[in-house]
Design goal:
alpha/beta; 10 helices; single chain; 327 residues; 31% helix
Length: 327
């Protein structure tokens, strides 16, 4: 027997249940992983709440963790028991002591990267990779806007932008978060509680505005994001922390400068083993070199059975950077 978090109905953090389960044997081309650290991501709250409904109940939760291979299924050739591994695109159920993961969704975790660093950065780091290196390729010297710069993805994006020699303008909700973003590499920050985002972007860019905005907040920042873009600019909407953007009149894109909008996801950019290896290699190189550091505060490390408490804190926007569950 092992322990996991599951839920039997969509709802708030209180629907999460701490329960026993019997792990299935790894199927063909599956690897069984003993999780040592589990990543908590905002998308997990969407699944739990029903914004992204599950197929059946009861359901596990989570797709990201780092640990050690305990068993391998028939046909597995890339991994063996004892290997250090990390994953973030697995089938639902990573909030667990043990999880079976498809071989092609798993990566070896370099010795230079701890289990906690791996679990705290893999999904967020791959997300940053596809955003800054594929959806719109950020160049050295380029200025761009990134919302929620003190969040888990945001802090990695600040560091990645600095490594690229680019100028990230990050929105934040407090002076403390502004300091965190600046320390991570943000060029400038905008406190959205006190400043007009689009006006400040215009001031920081001498009226030129920016060619791309990365927005994981959703409906609360939609208009400000569009108003921060120069003519023919690209709005990259990759999250809904404040709620989804709905009822959009597409003519607004014409009125604001013949703008472009995309709603990408990691699953749209990492669709093969080769693409996973390429994106992972770039992320692991920056982590191993120290160009990107992922330090999870002790108050944001929760016992696995405290998943409900972790979700409450995450949704209150009281967190800074990444959060972890520790089996």
């Amino acid at each position: 027997m092992a322990k996991r978090i599951q839920f039997s109905a969509h709802g708030g953090p209180d629907v999460l249940e701490w329960t026993d389960f019997e792990p299935a044997d790894p199927a063909e081309h599956e690897v069984q992983v003993e999780n040592r650290a589990i990543g908590i991501n905002y998308i997990d709250t969407y699944v739990r709440s029903g914004l992204y409904p599950v197929a059946a109940f009861p359901s596990g939760l989570g797709t990201e963790a780092a640990g050690v291979v305990s068993r391998v299924g028939r046909g597995v050739t890339l991994f063996k028991p004892g290997d250090r591994v990390v994953y973030c695109m697995a089938a639902m159920g990573a909030y667990s002591e043990v999880h079976n993961v498809a071989e092609d969704r798993l990566m070896h975790l370099p010795e230079a990267i701890s289990f906690e660093q791996g679990a705290a950065s893999f999904l967020k780091g791959l997300t940053t990779q596809y955003l800054l290196r594929q959806t719109y390729k950020i160049s050295a010297g380029e200025t761009f806007l990134f919302h929620a710069a003190a969040g888990g993805v945001g802090l990695i994006a600040c560091q990645w932008a600095k490594a690229l020699g680019a100028h990230l303008i990050g929105t934040v909700g407090s002076a403390e978060k502004a300091t965190m973003a600046k320390n991570a590499g943000a060029w400038e920050t905008i406190n959205y509680r006190e400043e007009n985002i689009a006006q400040r972007v215009s001031e920081l860019t001498d009226g030129k505005k920016v060619a791309v905005v990365y927005d994981s907040v959703g409906k609360d920042t939609w208009e400000a994001s569009l108003d921060s873009l120069r003519r023919h600019g690209l709005m990259v909407s990759f999250g809904n922390a404040s709620g989804p953007v709905t009822g959009v009149d597409l003519s607004i894109l014409n009125k604001k400068g013949s703008l472009f909008v995309t709603r990408p996801s990691l699953f749209g950019y990492v669709t093969s083993r080769q693409e996973l290896e390429i994106a992972s290699a770039e992320l692991f190189s920056l982590l191993a070199s120290g160009a990107i550091k992922v330090d999870v505060p002790e108050q944001q490390k929760f016992a696995l059975k405290e998943a409900s408490k972790a979700h409450q804190m995450l949704e209150s926007r009281a967190t800074q950077g990444s959060c972890l569950l520790i089996p």
